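Entry for flavin-adenine dinucleotide complex. Fields follow.
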Amino acid sequence: MKNLVLLGGGYGNMRVMQKLLPNTLPSEYNITLIDRIPFHGLKTEFYALAAGTESDKDVRVDFPKDARLNTVFGEITSIDLENQLISVGDSKVDYDELIIGLGCEDKYHNVPGAKEHTFSIQTMTQARKTYQAIADLPSGSTVGIVGAGLSGIELASELRESRKDLNIKLFDRGERILPAFPEKLSNYVKKWFDKHQVEVIPNSNVVKVEPGVLYNNEDSHQVDICVWTAGIQPVEIVRNLPVEFGEGNRVKINQYHQLPQYPNVYVVGDCASLPHAPSAQLAEVQAEQIVEVLTNVWQGKVLPEKMPELKLQGFLGSLGEKEGFAYLMDRTVTGRLARLLKSGVLWLYKFHNG
Ligand SMILES: Cc1cc2nc3c(=O)[nH]c(=O)nc-3n(C[C@H](O)[C@H](O)[C@H](O)COP(=O)(O)OP(=O)(O)OC[C@H]3O[C@@H](n4cnc5c(N)ncnc54)[C@H](O)[C@@H]3O)c2cc1C
C-alpha cells in the first residue's frame, strides 16, 4: 500500500480528508494523519476558549473515521525530505506523498520579553493556559491585548462580556482598527469598544514587555496579564526546512502547491506562501486545489497549464455574543446579522465535520 501522510489535522488537512475519503482515494492508498492532539481544534474559536465563554469541547471536532485512515498522535520532531521520513517522538513514518499543514505560531518581532511574559491563543494548550490565568485574576485587574487584528478584536470583545470587572486595553498598531477595510467597519468596531469600555490605544508600538509592565512607544502601562495577538509565522519545524521561503517565512510553493524540488510534497494553509493573508478559509480553498492536483497525478493526467485563482468570500468577525462585522463581496455588514452569519458558518462547519 502507498501512504499519503498529512502533517497536522488543521483546516487545510481536514478539507483534504473530507474530499478524499471515502471514495476519491485510490484503492492502493492509505492516509496517515499525524497531529499532537487527538482531534481537530477549531482555532478560529480559541479566543472564546481563552475568554471563558466556550468550553473545551465546543472548540473541537473529531477526526473522520475511515478504515483507510490511520492516526498517529504525537509531536512531529523532524521532516526528512530526502529520505521521505517523518519523526514522531521515537517512531518514524514514511510517505509516498506528503501534505504539510502544521499551521503557525506567534511572531514576536524581536520585542524583548514578549515571548517570556505574554500569553497566547495560537494553540489549544496555550489558549487553555490563557483562560486559566485570566480566570484567576481578581476584580479590577488589567488585561493588555497586543494586536488589534481579527483575533485581538474577538478576544477583547469576548473577554469584556465574560469579565465585566476587568480593565481591558487593546494595543492597535494602526491609526484606526482594521485599516485595510472600509472606515465604516473600523468605526463600528471602535464604537462597540467605546460603548463597552475597552480602551483602544492606536498607533501602538510595543517595544518591551516585563512582568506586569508593557512599554508602548514612550509610555509604560501596568498590566496584570498580557496576551499577544500581534503577528504569526509558520511553526518552527517548518521554518527550519531546507526550502525557499517567501514573505513572513512562509514556504514557497509552485502553482500546484508543491515544493518545487520535491513535487510529492505539498504545503497547505498558514505554512504556505500564498497571495492572500493566511486564514482558515484560504487553507480550505487551497486544500481543494491540492486534492484536484493529487487526483490528476494519481490518474496519470497532465496537470492544467494554469491553476485557477484561489477565491475567498471575505471575512466574518464577532463582537461578543450578539454583534459582529463582516466584509463579504466588497460589502460591509455589521450588527446582529453579521454575528448570526458567523454562528451559522461555525454551525455548518461542525455539522459537515461530524
Ligand atoms: C483567535 C483566532 C481567530 C481566527 N479567526 C479566523 C476566522 O474567523 N476566519 C478564518 O478564516 N481564519 C481565522 N483564523 C486563522 C485560522 O485559524 C488559521 O488560518 C487556520 O487555522 C490555518 O489552518 P491550517 O490548516 O494551516 O493549520 P491549523 O488549523 O493551525 O492546524 C495545524 C495543526 O498542526 C498541528 N501541529 C502543529 N505543529 C505540530 C507538531 N510539531 N506536531 C504535531 N502536530 C502539530 C496542530 O495541533 C494543529 O492541529 C483565526 C485564528 C485565530 C488564532
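NOTE: Residues 8-12, 35-37, 41, 43-44, 46-47, 75-76, 101-103, 121-122, 150-151, 154, 235, 237, 269-270, 278-281, 283, 315-316 surround flavin-adenine dinucleotide (CB under 6 Å).
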